[in-house]
Structure formats: structure tokens, C-alpha cells
Specification:
With about 450 residues, the chain is α+β, with helices and mostly antiparallel strands. Helices cover about 50% and strands about 20% of the residues. The structure holds adenosine-5'-diphosphate.
């Protein structure tokens, strides 16, 4: 089970790491000291054996040492012994307390000195055996030995100290760790408390915390930016719903008005027919509007799957122009299709056709009789620019940046009477962007407009 507090988790990780480091450090100290102390003990034994070799006496050809008082076995700290060339003891200051290591004596008699440990009355001694050489021949062996009691005592004290210091350090470090983690995490708790106060109803609130430019500061700022984006998209959603309701209400009110007037008294068949015709037009407008709304809602929800394929403009553009021809004829507008070298784009052919029809429809509706609407395209650097140009009313500069916004109409009265909902260009922009492309407009009031769709060339 992992603790739910990050502060506790951080502290535990920190303690674990510290424990590993301390353990490695303590083991290092202990082993180094142990090695050095034993090396010192052995060095001092060698030095003493060299000293004794200079004072070896020979009695009857057998080497021996000057008599020293044999220590009592319980106080035995060190002892010296001498052996003759047959390995028999000629001197022993331990008074016979220490067992003889016959193997080590034989090795020394054959010329090689050695150090090993022996057990004397339950305590460990290090013993150094060295050959006694006279005139190039080994005459016997001397052995010097010392108890390792001091070394063992020192090592035991060190172990005890480390054994107390280890948990004590961890205890102090855990308190320090909790304190530090608490300090570092306090701003996060603060951010959480303030964030909890921000509700979906009141997205105008911000954390607005005066934090330094560190991890928590960045978190708080990112949070504020996210709330700002949410607020913006909520606002747009609200506006969209309000605009859509308004757009739906207008034709419904018109229909209701027509029907109520018709019902006030008995009328001729011709005037009923007239009412029905008007109602039919309004219903058509409603159907177009609902279809556009549905397209945008599904586009927003990412529900429109684009069926990309290689589309030749030569196969799509003339068809679109033909579809608008009756409307153009009605408005007395001339439609021109500039003949270009064919270009191929990766696109959904149905959506590309819808985009073109929207642009052509707008161009024809905003161009007076005798005007010209032309379609052309060109390929530059792997990009295809498809343009619809008209010689119509044009769009005033102040409206230009907003014509692609939903429900935006530059000329409200005209656009509505022409049956527009203000959604056509937003659908065009969505289609262009869904293809990874873009749409732009250039316009001069009174002289005409050019809408250009830029798409990537592709097969
Ligand atoms: P609508 O359905 O009203 O045409 P659009 O989104 O298609 O809506 O266009 C938005 C507005 O941009 C229109 O109301 C119109 O004022 C302006 N507009 C679009 N195309 C043209 C054009 N070719 N010439 C002049 N104005 C245009």
C-alpha cells in the first residue's frame, strides 16, 4: 500500500536512499579500519621478529632467547618462542599455554616466514614465524605472537558507535525530510485549495497566485491558462446557442405571422397559395439552417470522417460551376472557369464540392447583374491555390477579419433576404482546415472579392 501523502512518500524515498548510502559508508569505514589495524599488528610482529633475530643466542648449537619472565596465562598479551633445527622448542615465554603449529614451524624451517592466527585459551593471537639463518643455513625458528584483543576491542567500539549513529541519523533525517518536503509541497496545497473554489459556473476566477517561476509556479500559471481557454470555449458555446436560437426563431416567427394573418378571415384560394409559398420558403431556410448547424455540431464533435483520396480539380470544379449556373443565370451573372493545367489534391471530394458551392453561391449572390464570377487555380511549391473571384459588392475592411465567424454577416439585411444564415463561410473554413489547408479573403468594397483556398498538392 502506498501512502496517500506525497510528503510522506518523498520522505520515505529519501530515508531509503539515505539508509543505503549510510550503510555503504559505514561498511566502507569498518572494513578499511579492520584491514589497516590487522596490517599494523602484523607489521609490528615482523618488526619484533627482526629485532629478536639479532639477539638469538646459540647454546650447544641450538638457538634460544634470553629468558624473560613467563607471563601468567590469564594476562598473556604476547609471547616469543624459539625452535631448533629439528622443530623442538628451545624457548617459550608463554609457559606452554600456546599450542605449537607444527606445519608453520616446518614451513619456516624450509626458509619461508609466515603469519597466521592461533587460539590461546579462547583468545585469538597473530603469530609470525621466521627462520633463524646462520652462515647460509637455517639453524632454527623464532616465533613472535601478540593477542588481537586491542584490535577487536577497537572494532567492537566502532560497530557500537555506528549501530547507534545509524538509526539516530535516520531519525533526525526523517524529521528534516518531512519538514523540507512539507515546505516544498505547501504551495501545491495552496493551489489545490484555491482551485477547488473555481466552479464551472464561474470561470472568470483565476488562481492569480504570486508564485516564483518554478515547477509549482508554472503549474499554477498553466492552470490559469487552461481556465482561460475553457472560459473562452464556454463563452463561444453560449453565444453559438444563443445565435442559433435566434436564427431559428426568425423564420418560425415569420411562418407563425403568415398563418395567423391567413386565419383571421376567409380568403381566396390564390391568397392561401401565396401564404403557403411564403411558408415553404421559410421552411426551406429552416432546413438549410438546421443542416448547417448539424454540420458544424458534428464537425465540432469530430464526428465527420473525411474520406481522403486524390482528387483532380479538373473533375470537381467544372461540376460545381455547372451546379451554380442556373442561379447565376437568374442573377444575370457570368460564370467563368479559367482553363488551367490540372492539379491534384488529397481531399474528401464531397466536402471539397460543398466548399466550392458555398463560395460560388456567395459570389453569385453578392454580384449584381452583368458582373463576373470566375474560378481558377494554380500550383506553387506543392500547394494548390483555388480562387473564386467576383466583381460584386466586396466586403468592407472592418468586416473582413470576421466573415469566417459563425453567424457573422457583413451586410445583415441583404444576406438574410438572400437566404443566408451566416454559417456558410464558417463551414468553408472548417473544411479547409480539416484538410490541413487554409482559406483567406481579399476584398475591395464596390469592386469585388477573392476567396482563396490553399490545399496541399497530393496524390
Ligand atoms: P451567408 O450565409 O450569410 O452568406 P456566409 O458565412 O457565407 O454567410 O458569409 C458571411 C458574410 O460574408 C455574408 O453575410 C456576406 O456579408 C459576406 N460575404 C460572403 N461572401 C461574399 C462575397 N463574395 N462578396 C461580398 N460579401 C460576401
Amino acid at each position: 500500500m502506498t501512502p496517500r501523502s506525497l510528503r510522506l512518500r518523498l520522505t520515505l524515498w529519501y530515508l531509503l536512499l539515505l539508509a543505503v548510502i549510510l550503510a555503504a559508508f559505514s561498511a566502507g569505514i569498518y572494513l578499511t579500519l579492520r584491514h589497516n589495524l590487522y596490517a599494523n599488528l602484523d607489521d609490528s610482529l615482523e618488526a619484533r621478529s627482526e629485532d629478536l633475530l639479532t639477539v638469538v643466542q646459540f647454546t650447544g648449537g641450538r638457538p634460544t632467547l634470553a629468558a624473560t619472565l613467563p607471563a601468567r596465562p590469564s594476562e598473556l598479551e604476547q609471547f616469543d618462542r624459539a625452535y631448533d633445527s629439528s622443530g623442538a622448542l628451545t624457548f617459550d615465554s608463554s609457559g606452554g599455554a600456546a599450542p605449537v603449529d607444527a606445519g608453520a614451524v616446518r614451513a619456516a624451517l624450509s626458509g619461508s616466514a609466515s603469519t597466521h592466527s592461533i587460539d590461546v585459551n579462547g583468545s585469538t593471537f597473530h603469530a609470525h614465524l621466521a627462520p633463524i639463518t646462520l652462515e647460509g643455513r637455517v639453524q632454527g625458528v623464532i616465533e613472535v605472537a601478540r593477542s588481537d584483543g586491542d584490535v577487536a576491542d577497537t572494532l567492537r567500539t566502532l560497530l557500537l558507535t555506528l549501530g547507534i549513529a545509524f538509526p539516530a541519523t535516520l531519525a533526525v533525517a526523517s524529521m528534516g525530510g518531512l519538514f523540507l518536503a512539507g515546505r516544498a509541497l505547501a504551495p501545491i496545497d495552496h493551489v489545490t485549495r484555491v482551485a477547488r473554489r473555481i466552479s464551472a459556473e464561474d470561470l472568470s476566477q483565476r488562481l492569480a497566485l504570486d508564485l516564483p517561476e518554478d515547477e509549482v509556479g508554472r503549474l499554477a500559471r498553466t492552470f490559469d491558462e487552461m481556465i482561460a481557454r475553457l472560459e473562452d470555449s464556454f463563452r463561444r458555446q453560449r453565444e453559438f446557442t444563443a445565435d442559433a436560437s435566434h436564427e431559428l426563431r426568425t423564420p418560425l416567427t415569420a411562418i407563425k405571422g403568415q398563418i395567423e394573418v391567413a386565419l383571421t378571415k376567409q380568403r381566396s384560394a390564390a391568397s392561401y397559395e401565396e401564404v403557403l409559398r411564403t411558408v415553404n420558403e421559410e421552411v426551406d431556410r429552416l432546413i438549410r439552417l438546421v443542416r448547417s448547424l448539424l454540420t458544424l455540431a458534428r464537425a465540432d464533435a469530430g464526428q465527420i470522417a473525411l474520406a481522403f483520396e486524390a482528387v483532380s480539380l479538373q473533375s470537381v470544379v467544372p461540376g460545381a460551376v455547372e451546379q451554380v449556373r442556373p442561379l447565376a443565370a437568374e442573377h444575370g451573372v457570368e460564370l467563368r472557369l479559367s482553363s488551367n493545367a490540372d492539379a491534384v489534391v488529397r481531399a474528401d471530394p464531397d466536402l471539397l464540392l460543398q466548399l466550392l458551392l458555398n463560395l460560388l453561391d456567395n459570389a453569385v449572390k453578392h454580384t449584381p447583374a452583368e458582373g463576373i464570377v470566375s474560378v481558377s487555380w494554380r500550383t506553387i511549391d506543392g500547394q494548390v491555390d483555388l480562387s473564386v473571384t467576383d466583381t460584386g459588392s466586396g466586403i468592407a475592411a472592418e468586416h473582413l477579419p470576421r466573415v469566417f465567424d459563425r453567424f457573422y454577416r457583413a451586410d445583415k439585411a441583404r444576406s438574410r433576404s438572400a437566404g443566408g444564415s451566416g454559417l456558410g463561410l464558417s463551414i468553408c473554413r472548417w473544411i479547409a482546415e480539416a484538410h490541413g489547408g487554409s482559406i483567406s479573403v481579399e476584398s475591395e468594397p464596390g469592386r469585388g472579392s477573392t476567396f482563396t483556398v490553399r490545399l496541399a498538392e497530393g496524390r
